[in-house]
Amino acid sequence: MGNQAEKLRLKMENKHISTSIGVISGKGGVGKSNFSTNFSFNLAKKGYEIVIVDMDIGMGNIHILLGEKSRYSLIDYLSGEYILEDVIESFLSNIDYLSGGSAMANVIEWNDSMFDRLLSAFELLQQRYDYIIFDMGAGATEWSLQLLEALDDIIVISTTEPTAVMDAYSMMKYVNTRNPLKNMHIVCNRALTTDEANQTLHRLKSTAQQFLNKNLNILGSIPEDIHVRKAVQQQKLFSILYERAPATKAVQKITTTYTSGQSKNLNELDTNRFINALKSIFNKGRE
To answer: What distance in Å separates the CA atoms of residue 269 and residue 6, rounded to the nearest whole number?
Structure first.
């Protein structure tokens, strides 16, 4: 714990604003968590400090994909049993993560104290890292939509399957209804061909433009790749294990597209914007 606390203290000495990103999907099984971890790794390769927050609380699998055994989870922090430094785990030198926990028995019902502790944690995280990657649970709940409403960017993951596309659109509709100004990006995963991926992405983009009056940013696509399954079986990131794999190259390209498209100067933004938005949204829901 001492080393982790010292690491966090050093990060706090150079305070700056973080970018908060929610990675979402309409349904499970589309590779959302795999994208979150490999996207985070490629951001870290560019020199950014990253923390991954597994928001699939009680059923999280981020630590499994990383090949890690978490001592504690976000549940342990929210319940008041441990401080934040206890539950933040290090993966690489500039990638940390908070496990959501994977025991079904630990699924919790939110209360005011947990919301307050969550806000406190996020306030600290945004000062310590360049990017906070929220790997959201599949589907929509009231509190997850509240969180998404406050984040800077949303990345929507879909496959080419019609059900996945429809569910991805439904998620975008939920988020857009609450905040029409939200930045939303789309990624097509597990595409058999480039044409198939492009058709899916442009179908989502045109549908959102027509029915939501929303302009989606296309980040790119990731091909169906046997190396992804092999990496999952070995509990390693495919971006680390298979550097030349098609999926690895695709995520590298997506990461570059995302970072090059960011026009905001992070150091000039209000460092409390994310927290203030969360407080306003959460408090409104608790009135």
So the answer is: 27
Whole-angstrom distance, CA of residue 168 vs CA of residue 164: 6
Q: Which residues, 6+ apart, have CB-to-CB distance to 164 below 8 Å?
A: 25, 26, 27, 30, 158
Beta carbons within 8 Å of 62's beta carbon, 6+ residues apart: 33, 36, 37, 52, 54, 97, 99, 100, 135
Beta bridge partners of 78: none
- Residue 184: is it exposed, middle or buried by C-beta count within 10 angstroms (0-12/13-18/19+)? buried
Q: For residue 133, list its beta bridge partners.
A: 21, 52
pTM, full prediction: 0.89
Dihedral sign for Cα atoms in the order 112, 37, 34, 173: positive
CA distance 17 to 270: 8
List the beta bridge partners of residue 229: none
Categorise residue 2: left if φ over 0, alpha if ψ from -120 to 50, beta otherwise.
alpha
Distance CA 12, CA 25 (A): 32
Q: Is 59 exposed, middle or buried (0-12, 13-18, 19+ CB in 10 A)?
A: middle
- In order along its 287 residues, the chain shows pLDDT tens digits of 455 555 555 555 555 678 999 999 988 889 999 999 999 999 999 999 999 999 887 677 899 999 998 889 888 898 888 999 999 999 999 999 999 876 654 556 778 888 888 889 988 998 899 999 999 987 777 778 888 988 999 999 999 999 999 999 999 999 999 999 999 999 999 999 999 999 999 999 999 999 999 999 999 999 999 999 999 999 999 999 999 999 999 999 999 999 998 744 444 445 566 777 777 776 765 55
Contact 185, 258 (CB under 8 A): yes
Please work out, in degrees rounded to the nearest 5, the angle formed at the alpha carbon of residue 134 by the alpha carbons of 88 and 143: 105
